[in-house]
Design brief:
The complex is a heterodimer of chains A (363) and B (137). In chain A, 53% of the residues lie in helices and 5% in strands. By secondary structure, chain A is mostly helical. In chain B, 34% of the residues lie in helices and 36% in strands. The chains are: A mainly alpha (363), B alpha+beta (137).
Amino acid sequence: MLQTLRFRFLLGAVILCISVVQIFRKSFHPAFLEKPAEADVLHPPVIREYQPKYCDNVYQLFCQKRGVSQDPTGFVHPDIDGEMQALKIYKDIIRQHRDWNVEQIDEELVHQIFNPKRREQVLTAARWVKRQIENFISRQPRSVFNAQEKRQILSRIRKTELELPPPISLYADEPDLFTRNEVYYQRTLDGKMRLRVGGAFLLIAKSWFNLVFTLAHEWAHSIDPCEIRSAHLSFPAYDRLTACLLQRGLIISHKTRSECQENDQLSETFADWIAVQITADALASFSTEFQTDQIINAARNSVRDLCEQDEDIEIDTLSYPAPRVRIEGIFGNNPHIRHLLGCTLPKKEPSYCTFESKTTGSL
Amino acid sequence: MIKLFIYAFCLPLQAGQINSSIEIQYALGRDHYRFVATSQNSSIVANTFLNRQVLDTGPIDSNRYPLFLKRVSDFISQIKKDPIPRPPCRSPFRITVKIGSEIHIASGCRSTNGGELSKLVRDGEFLLYSKNECEQK
């Protein structure tokens, strides 16, 4: 009886010792340390095995829905809505003031459309976008831009001015803009670089993300490869990016293509590419506050107005990439955007183009 | 060209007597705009389009149309006379004026010509929108 008890005691002690050793090994031995914890800090978790179906067709995700598109910061209406709204305001003013001349009517139109609240919304977004583009350029490594190149690029970004009426004299040479839906970059014959915003755009673009993408795209034109070329500058990093964009088919390389001439898509693709980086920053800054569907709506609103081109309308696909290329290829394939949408990187695309891209084979 | 010259100097006397039309097409950003005014059998109608979608349509003032036609004709003559060498253009335009059987076309870039294209468009639209409202009343 006593021997049996001793045997059981010894057996229990051995089992206990083995268990303690196992626990110790699992807790402290390097081979048993859980590596994913560290990896997750550096690369936030992405669904690796399964991803939502929409990841395979971001264009459809963003463009299938017609009409008004809402995200937590605001909405985006179709382009035509803005023009119609601006036109109604214009007609109402004409009807109410039959004795007024064109200038007086424009004065009142600007007063009603470019009101302080709407102006401030655009100005705030523009300040943020300008700063983000500057940061994006500044943080590029020396292997991309040397100090002088950075200074040249930053100087162009800073010299570009946003012109937003009133006064109406600001658009004296483009009075039709008061009712237009456009935001666009322009370099005047005397070399002034400016961004102008049509009145209709103020009426329909209330989403922060749409403002960010639109303004970032236009601001990026101040440093696009064609503008850089016209300033007699040349950056190897731009050449690498351009070669990659061409190789990926994000710029159509037709037989008669002449770089930076009419019908070349280089400047528009570049402007989209920069705008995507900035929009990814904007989405990331809200990613902890938004739920997944809100992030998707915000991403959709960023590029919502690009879908409109795909309808049965006259499309300028010569100087602009097709909507599917812009939304799927440039926006939807960006690694940061895909991560925010909960998508893995597309298998068919080896890597997203960067200033450091290396191309393979001939173009 | 002779008829264009006559129109430029003799309007508004002959307006309404010869069929005519004005078409201004221009790209702004990624959108295409079009303004069309047609004078036929003393009836003058104008339309504005955004990417083929009609923004507005209606009659315009027959008293003010001749002066507008003259301004557009003058602009075409000016472009043909002094073509401005331009860099690749982000916002191209094309103007077509038909007077009787004669067709006159000029194209250029929005940012040149001191914004004359934009002013012409604005004036054309003003003619349409102001007349529209009068008619509706």
